[in-house]
Amino acid sequence: MRVREISSSLLLCLVLTGCAGGEAAGKSGTGKSGVAAGPTASPSIAAADVPFYTCMRQHGMTVSYGDDGAPHFVEKDSPQYPPAQQACLSLLPSPVPVQASAQDLAAARKSSACMREKGISWYPDPDPVTGEVQQKDGGTSEQWQALKRDHRDAYRDCLPRPS
């Protein structure tokens, strides 16, 4: 399981689809449309995310607060949304790595050792915090691409599969 990728995706979901809770549109004092005006941040937006929302507003996006109080971009389906998102995404704070349990970390270490025992000497140890194996920590991109194709037995024997 790639916890960091899931954590990044979850954070992106929370910010971009508005899963983050806050005040409801009808109670925000934004008028009939429920659209917040101006570059000020709503209390429903985390302080660390304010630069992202400010940037999106500067790129023409409008934040609306739904009945659940979560922020949503009104123009999400418009052609202007992808370039605005691309311009502002770097302003989101990096997700905090999720600490792997001792059991998961031990299993990841065992899997890496198993891969090396099966002849894949370049296979890296997992990250000591997340338990994830990062391609940047060992092997070439060609080796990673060939891993399942050329080392199918080792892959099947050593790496856990979802049940």
What coarse outline follows from CA principal-axis ratios?
elongated
How far apart, in Å, are the first and last alpha carbons? 12 Å
User: Rg, please?
Assistant: 22 Å
Helix content: 25-40%
Number of alpha- plus pi-helical segments: 6
Overall pLDDT: 75
How would you describe this protein?
- The structure is a single chain.
- This protein is mostly helical.
- The protein contains six helices and two strands, in the order H-H-E-E-H-H-H-H.
- Helix 2 crosses helix 3 (81-88).
- The protein is elongated and about 55 Å long.
- The protein starts with a helix and ends in a 5-residue tail after the last helix.
- The model is unreliable at 1-43 (pLDDT under 50).
Gist of the model:
The protein is mainly alpha-helical. It has helices spanning 3-16, 50-58, 81-88, 102-117, 141-150, 152-158; strands at 63-65, 71-73. Strand 1 and strand 2 form a beta hairpin.
